[in-house]
């Protein structure tokens, strides 16, 4: 099959509960969209547990990962090896913190000890608020990521209240300079246009169908007074926090337009911004905008009139009815007949996170390399993942604009922004020449995927056809042709009889780590996966 773009789904089914067969293919589809690289064991467990129980597991509040640490001894004499730096001043030499944060973040995505939506939602929020800019303190970056992990499937209202005064957001959209004598409209505009009601059609001069320029000016005044403490790269123990300066706050009444029922915002001091958020969320447009972005992230980019009526509006109603709790909306969407439509499967081009994780996490990643992956190598491996994603146009915590990555909003390309001839070459090189190469290494230490454990996870590794079938289930979102199946099968057999594969696998399982028996099987599996990861279907989820 040639490398191709996704097919366009047909008209939406109403967002009624899914009632079809709960088979391995449906379980795999759900996990591909919610877990970063599901394993065969996770897929089988989900199928056996059923849809409802699997959603309980996915949407369960997950533990917050331990914070990033100092992972090597030659930096930062004021922090001990293995200790976290998230509350430590910038006294001393500490250039490693950016690498530590990246390594920590990408290693979290590879965690194989929990089947949960937490890290998938973390990136959703990263893209939703799309904070970036030159004023970056790694402690503040961690604080932002921690918020997204903590409220991964939490309350949207709470998330807005916290992000509005988050130090990185105040830096990014100039909220920290917003003063009653000179109101700054950056955050006021984006909190409506991007984060809540959305930018509607132009209805008149300075008047959109969701807000007006009068509202931008009023909200700018309402958000005055918030400041960041002087923590930026400080040698002193100044906490990474924002605070409210009442002397800089505009205490006058703020008149909103007809788009918000001509409401007046009265002086609320340090809590006035919460009053603003409540007003914004009282508009149905805010719930609709949020649900559209959630849909484009988890399902597909095309929202036609049918999807709008039968999917987005019901989801928005659910969000409002549940006081902006996100979990019920996700549950409704992920348990719907629409989500499991045939045209939805394999309709999304993987972003770089998904691309990297879907190659490695199903093998249990590199956790079996316990002697090689000490603390330092573990973090350096996470940094390697980050470098790959940067090469594939997804730079860590650096969305190209406050709108986020183009794949989730820029028509008509949408997900196709992740692919180009040059990016496709990079994907092939990362997959085939790096990660699958037997000499793949981290800072000189060779590591290899855990083919042995993968083979042991298969229901019948002696049956070459079953090996192909189950591996396609794990790594490819769509059925493949008979020619593709034969090609994969031939990579395992190498022209030999099926009985030879049976004998090789028997000896392989009986003699773990013995090169005489492991080499023939590992080499075949490596070639097998190079073919599979070269299929166009592998770029999809």
Automatic annotation (TrEMBL):
This is Uncharacterized protein (DUF1800 family). It comes from Neolewinella aquimaris. The lineage of its organism: Bacteria, Pseudomonadati, Bacteroidota, Saprospiria, Saprospirales. It comes from the Bacteria.
């Amino acid at each position: 099959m040639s490398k191709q773009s996704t097919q366009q789904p047909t008209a939406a089914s109403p967002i009624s509960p899914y009632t079809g067969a709960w088979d391995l293919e449906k379980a795999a589809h759900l996990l591909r969209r919610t877990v970063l690289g599901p394993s065969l064991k996770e897929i089988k467990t989900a199928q056996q547990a059923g849809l409802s129980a699997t959603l309980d597991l996915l949407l369960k509040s997950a533990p917050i990962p331990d914070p990033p640490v100092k992972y090597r001894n030659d930096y930062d004499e004021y922090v001990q090896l293995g200790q976290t730096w998230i509350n430590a001043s910038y006294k001393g030499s500490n250039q490693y913190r950016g690498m530590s944060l990246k390594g920590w973040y990408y290693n979290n995505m590879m965690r194989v000890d929990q089947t949960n939506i937490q890290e998938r939602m973390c990136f959703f929020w990263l893209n939703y608020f799309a904070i970036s800019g030159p004023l970056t303190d790694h402690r503040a970056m961690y604080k932002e990521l921690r918020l997204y992990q903590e409220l991964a499937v939490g309350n949207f209202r709470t998330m807005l209240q916290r992000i509005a005064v988050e130090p990185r957001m105040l830096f990014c959209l100039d909220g920290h300079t917003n003063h009653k004598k000179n109101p700054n409209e950056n955050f006021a505009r984006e909190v409506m246009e991007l984060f809540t009601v959305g930018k509607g059609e132009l209805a008149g001069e300075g008047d959109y169908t969701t807000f007006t320029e009068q509202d931008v000016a009023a909200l700018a005044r309402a958000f005055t007074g918030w400041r960041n403490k002087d923590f930026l790269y400080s040698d002193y123990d100044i906490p990474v926090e924002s605070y409210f300066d009442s002397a800089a706050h505009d205490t006058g009444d703020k008149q909103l337009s007809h788009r918000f029922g001509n409401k007046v915002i009265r002086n609320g001091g340090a809590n006035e911004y919460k009053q603003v958020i409540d007003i914004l969320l009282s508009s149905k447009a805010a719930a609709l905008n949020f649900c559209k972005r959630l849909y484009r992230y988890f399902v597909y980019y095309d929202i036609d009139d049918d999807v709008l009526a039968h999917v987005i509006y019901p989801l928005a109603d659910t969000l409002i009815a549940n006081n902006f709790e996100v979990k019920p909306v996700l549950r409704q969407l992920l348990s719907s007949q629409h989500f499991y439509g045939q045209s939805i499967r394999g309709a999304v081009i993987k972003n770089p996170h998904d691309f990297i994780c879907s190659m490695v996490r199903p093998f249990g990643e590199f956790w079996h390399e316990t002697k090689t992956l000490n603390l330092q190598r573990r973090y350096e491996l996470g940094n390697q993942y980050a470098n790959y994603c940067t090469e594939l146009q997804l730079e860590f915590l650096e969305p190209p604009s406050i709108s986020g990555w183009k794949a989730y909003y820029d028509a008509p390309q949408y997900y196709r922004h992740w692919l180009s001839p040059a990016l496709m070459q990079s994907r092939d090189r990362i997959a085939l020449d790096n990660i699958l190469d037997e000499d793949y290494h981290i800072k000189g230490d060779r590591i290899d995927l855990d083919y042995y454990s993968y083979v042991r996870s298969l229901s019948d590794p002696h049956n070459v056809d079953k090996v192909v079938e189950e591996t396609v289930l794990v790594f490819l979102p769509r059925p493949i042709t008979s020619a593709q199946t034969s090609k994969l099968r031939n990579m395992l057999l190498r022209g030999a009889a099926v009985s030879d594969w049976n004998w090789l696998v028997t000896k392989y399982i009986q003699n773990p780590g013995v090169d005489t028996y492991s080499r023939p099987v590992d080499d075949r599996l490596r070639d097998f996966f190079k073919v599979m990861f070269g299929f166009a279907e592998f770029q999809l989820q």
